Amino acid sequence: MRKITISRAVVALSAAAALALAAPLAASAHVHVDPDTATPGDYATLTFRVPTESATAGTVKVEVDLPTDTPFGSVSYQPVPGWSAKVVTEALPKPVKTATATITEAPTKVIWTADAGNQIAPSQFQQFTVSAGPVPDTGSIMLPARQTYSDGTVVNWDQKTPSSGAEPEHPAPTLYITDAPPAPEQAGTAGGVATLRATPGAQAGAAASATPGATSGTTNAPGTNTAGADSAATDTAIGLGIAGLALGAIALVVAVFAATRRRAPRPAGPGVDETRSDSGQVR
């Protein structure tokens, strides 16, 4: 009985640990923008943190669509070893008027393609950084992403998060500018790992320099930097997982202690002779 009780406690601990870690790890595999806010008129450094979710194929291509109704005037990328990148500039479907000009063409897409023999392997991630601005004066903008795997599978991160904050299966990274972002607990995300991360960075109005290898209209804005640390939301998710493991360990100790006490012999009372006869009766 004692062994059975301990075995059940071990099984319970394993289940608790799996549940504690499953939620944050699953959420961290999604594509998010973190931090997901920016200020109108500023330049923002956007770091796309892309994990490979597949267990059998690697990521070989990443595309991010840029807004065409509220376009960025300038987008540049930071080189990533083993990957080629380009910013696609196209004529806008409809001219956009601003306070100072009418925009007829703008950056519409950023594409990263892995060099031959290179990929983001299973259980790995890669960060891709761009500088974009000036940030348009609008409520929010979606940055849909497409992730292509070496086996031909394409995952589209393009679903809009509703006002309720309930996160869809493949949420599109969204940059909130004048709108308030949903609370993390409402969005159902414990972390932020393809993880498109938008970090306000470069100064607005900084002089741009030409970027070798980019398509026509692509420029580099000074102040581009790499976001190295994981988001605070990811740290919180990991902390919750560790806390779950700790609680499970405490439960195991309590279960083992209780089982041991149940098996402990009860001491004989004063003057009682515990010598048993052949029939099993206490004499």
Give the arrangement of secondary structure elements.
Layout (H helix, E strand, L loop, with lengths): L1 H27 L15 E8 L7 E7 L8 E4 L5 E15 L4 E13 L10 E9 L6 E3 L2 E5 L4 E4 L16 E3 L7 H4 L7 E6 L8 E2 L8 E2 L11 H32 L20
Antiparallel strand pairs: 1-6, 1-11, 2-5, 2-8, 3-6, 4-5, 7-10, 8-9, 12-13
Helix pairs in contact: 1-3
Summarize the structure.
The chain has 283 residues and is an alpha+beta fold.
Q: What does it look like?
A:
By secondary structure, the protein is α+β, with helices and mostly antiparallel strands. The chain folds into two domains: 2-20 and 238-263; 30-231, Sandwich (Immunoglobulin-like), CATH 2.60.40.2230. Helix content is 22%, strand content 29%. It is built from three helices and 13 strands; from the N terminus they run H-E-E-E-E-E-E-E-E-E-E-H-E-E-E-H. It has helices at 2-28, 184-187, 232-263; strands at residues 44-51, 59-65, 74-77, 83-97, 102-114, 125-133, 140-142, 145-149, 154-157, 174-176, 195-200, 209-210, 219-220. The strands form four sheets. A five-stranded antiparallel beta sheet has the order 4-5-2-8-9, with no helix packed on it. Helix 1 runs antiparallel to helix 3 (232-263).
